Amino acid sequence: MKKMFMPVLLCLFVSLYAQKSEVKEIACLQPYRDSGIRLECEKMADKLIIHSYGYGGAGVLFSWGSALRACDIMEHESSGDKKVAVLGAGVIGLALAYELEQRGYQVSIYARSFPPHTISSNLTGISPIKENNANKELANNLRKITYKKFAEKNDFAGITREAKNQEIIVDTHAFVIDLFEKIKKSTVEIHQVEFIKRDEILALSQKVIFLKQ
Asked: Strand order in 106-111's β-sheet?
C-alpha cells in the first residue's frame, strides 16, 4: 500500500461475503473528479448549499474530516437553521449526518440506496483522489482530522488500532454498516428517493442542503 495514505490511516478494503463455501464477488465503480475535492458553500435561491465531494474511492480516509469541516462551514454561513438535508448515503454522507445529529441538528438523509447496497459498503479497492496544488493541503488536513476522530471514537465496528506502528485499520464494510445502524437508531430521518433535476432538490423544505455529489 502506498505511503501517500500511510501512516495517517490504513483502510482494509477487503470485505468478503461468505455463505457456505461460496464467496460473492462485487465490482464497484467510483466517481472521479479531475479537479479534486470540492468542500465549500454557495447560495442558491433561498438555500445554503454545502458541496462536499471529489474524494474518489477514498471516502473512509476523508469521512470524519470532511464531515467536521462541512459542519463548520455551515455554522459559519447559515442563519441558525436547525433542519438540514444530506443528499447521499455513502460514507461521506453518513459521517456527515452522524456529526450533524450529534451537534443537535434535525437531519434528513435523501438517497437512492442505503447500506449494504451502496458503493461505500461494498468497497474492495481504492482510487487515489486528484491532489493538485489547490487542494493538497486541504486533503492532508482532512486525513489528519479523520485519523484523530477514529483514534478517539472506539465504539464503531471494524476499527482496529495497530499499537506498534500507531496505525488504524478500518474494515470498510463493517464500519459503514455499523455507522448506518447507529444513524437508524438516532433522530435522523431516512428517505429513499432519487433526485433527477436540480429543482427537485431546491424544493426541499430544509434551507440548508449538503450536496454529496
From this structure: 38-44, 47-53, 208-211, 83-87, 106-111, 189-192
